[in-house]
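Can't paste images in this forum, so I'm doing it all in text. The chain is below; anyone willing to post the predicted structure tokens underneath?
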Amino acid sequence: MSNIQTTSNNQRYVIPLITLTILFFMWGFITCMNDILIPYLKQLFNLTFFESMLVQFCFFGAYFIGSLAYFIISSKWGDPVNKIGYKKSIIAGIILSAFGCVLFWPAATSSLYGLFLTALFVLGLGFTILQITANAYVSLLGPENGASSRLNLTQAFNSLGTTIAPVLGGHLIFEFFSNGGTISPQATRIPYIIFAGILLLVAVFISAVKLPSFEMSEEEKEVKGLGALKFVHLRLGVLGIFCYVGAEVAIGSFIISFLEQEQIMGLTESVSKNYLALYWGGAMIGRFLGAIYLNHNINFSKKIIYMIGTATLVFLLIFSLVELTFDQVSFFLIFIVLNLAGFLIGKAAPARTLAIFAGINVLLLASSTINTGAYAMYSILGIGIFNSIMFSNIYTLSIAGLGKYTSQGSSLLVMAILGGAIIPVIQGALADQIGVQLSLILPIVCYIYIFVFGIYCSKKFKNIEHVGPIAGGH
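Text version of the structure:
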């Protein structure tokens, strides 16, 4: 009887999970468009690196403002999501995100940099709501021991969006909607109106789909105060998310400028955007592999077969998307093999795997800083695949054991996405002073902290292969 009931529950969750996966894809696509906007706006308004990084500052700064407001409301009047439900919260986040996209029309029409930043801030507020609600909801759509696997799966499709965005988005802005190949402020109007329309269609679809509701106890609805802050591992995890998002966004934001340098590769933007897709595509490969390896319903031998097969198929998908030859992308196969080895050494333990991947990224960044030419390029592009499981693993480890304070702790972790606003701006200022290549010292420091956090959690949660739930703990 229990097996029949489990099967029935799993079937009940399939459509909602597919629906949220579509949302994660669009979410990733639009977020990664910032990496295209930075060089575009830098040329359009003749900005310094510091000024161009205000794109990420406004977008990810909205995460901090939005989640700080959420945390204050939660601590004084009770958790908002627990009160109104996940479905309504997710739809509200999508509508606000769509409105942010619409604001690109007046920004492009008036050619005012400040309006572009305002549009990005509103877009970021919408995504803040989605971060707080959608990640938590995915963790509830099935058994707790599969939460890490499900979140890695949905984030893999989020990464599919970030992989396609540099290629398709770069083509739309730098070529299709450009004014005869020149940088034009109008190039962003139609693409972002299209994005707004797609988001609204997703909102309509979600409103029509019957999503499972999860009843909250009165105690959970009325959680007040700052109880989540008493957990040391949560406080450390907040800084971990800050460092991870900051480093990931900063590196992605600088890749095009990094590859344009003569001592590196001297590539044009139209070529560099394809390599940027490899950086984000690596995260997609790693998340698909993480979703398989963390699935406790698959035996070890099948996991290996599935992981190799999936890695091969996703690599071929990325290769079909980018305008590069096989010789130009074949180096990435080495990183896939190294990533598989990292998972095997990590033995499905979130903390151990996190420390391994962070350590590898420290070495890759060091290589990018001291080398030139192809070696520097290969090193920086390889970082993406080892970023793959970091958000979900830091999130999982930070939220473990919080009980009724889980949603409050989740809002603190989303608040830490502020790193995506702060780190790129600081790196932009460094790049203006010491150059793009040496400015990579900053993300090295970030990954060193994540490595230390992974070691700390591997001792705290010793002999525990799965730490859960990721979020929502209801």
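DSSP finds 21 helices and no strands in the chain. The radius of gyration is 21 Å.
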